[in-house]
Write a structure and sequence with these properties.
Blueprint lengths: L15 E9 L5 H8 L5 E6 L18 E14 L2 E7 L10 H5 L4 E6 L8 H9 L4 E6 L9 H8 L7 E4 L4 H27 L1
Parallel strand pairs: 1-4, 1-5, 5-6, 6-7
Antiparallel strand pairs: 2-3, 3-4
Helix pairs in contact: 1-5
Length: about 200
C-alpha cells in the first residue's frame, strides 16, 4: 500500500469485519486458539488460579493449569483482503458466564471448543448458542493422549443437530485454527441464508 492506495493503482478495499466467539469449558484451549491465529498481540485477561478459588474452579483433567480467563481474550485475523474476523474468547468458568450476553452481542457465529476427555464441559456453551439461535461449530481440540472418536459418536454424545459442523483441530497451530474459522463463517452464512429463506416462504 502506498499513500492509502494499492500498488496497482486500485483504491484500497474496505474490509467487512465479523465478530466470532470462541467458547467452551474451563481449560479447553480458548486462549491458545485465539493466540495461535491472531495477527495482533492478543488481549488477554488472565489471572492466576488461587487456593481460594479451588472450591469453585474444577481443575479435574487440567491439573497443570495455572491461570484462567476472567473477562475475555481478543484477537484479529484477516482471512482475505476484504474480510477481517475479530475473535472474542469467552471465560469458561460458570462464575463468569454473566459476561457472555455482552460478548455475544452482534456475533456472526461461534466456535465451541471441546475436549473429548471432558465433553460435558461444553454443554453450557452449546445450550447457550442454541437458545439464542447463534450458529456455531464444534471444534474438537485434539489434546495429546486423548482418544480420537468418530464424528458421529461426538455428535451423539453432545446431542447435536445434523447441520452443526464438527471438526478436529489443534488449537496450537495457526492453519488448523484458520480452517476452523473459515468453517464457522461458511456455516453462519449458510445458516443465515436458510433463515432468510424460511421467512420469505
Amino acid at each position: 500500500m502506498i499513500f492509502g492506495r494499492s500498488e496497482r493503482g486500485k483504491p484500497p478495499v474496505e474490509p467487512v469485519t465479523l465478530k466470532i466467539l470462541v467458547a467452551g469449558g474451563f481449560g479447553v484451549g480458548k486462549t491458545t486458539f485465539v493466540g495461535a491465529v491472531s495477527e495482533i498481540r492478543p488481549l488477554r485477561t488472565e489471572e492466576l488460579l488461587t487456593e481460594a478459588g479451588r472450591p469453585v474452579d474444577d481443575t479435574s483433567g487440567v491439573e497443570g493449569k495455572r491461570t484462567t480467563t476472567v473477562a475475555m481474550d481478543f484477537g484479529r485475523i484477516t482471512l482475505r483482503e476484504d474480510l477481517v474476523l475479530y475473535l472474542f474468547g469467552t471465560p469458561g468458568q460458570e462464575r463468569f458466564w454473566f459476561m457472555w450476553d455482552e460478548l455475544s452481542e452482534g456475533a456472526l457465529g461461534a466456535v465451541v471448543l471441546a475436549d473429548t476427555r471432558r465433553l460435558e464441559d461444553c454443554f453450557a456453551a452449546i445450550d447457550y448458542f442454541e437458545r439464542r439461535s447463534i450458529p456455531f461449530l464444534v471444534g474438537v481440540n485434539c489434546f495429546e493422549g486423548a482418544i480420537r472418536y468418530p464424528e458421529e459418536d461426538v455428535r451423539q454424545a453432545l446431542d447435536l443437530d445434523e447441520d452443526v459442523p464438527i471438526v478436529l483441530c489443534d488449537a496450537r497451530h495457526k492453519q488448523s485454527v484458520k480452517d476452523v474459522l473459515v468453517g464457522v463463517v461458511q456455516h453462519a452464512m449458510a445458516y443465515s441464508a436458510r433463515r432468510r429463506q424460511s421467512i420469505t416462504t
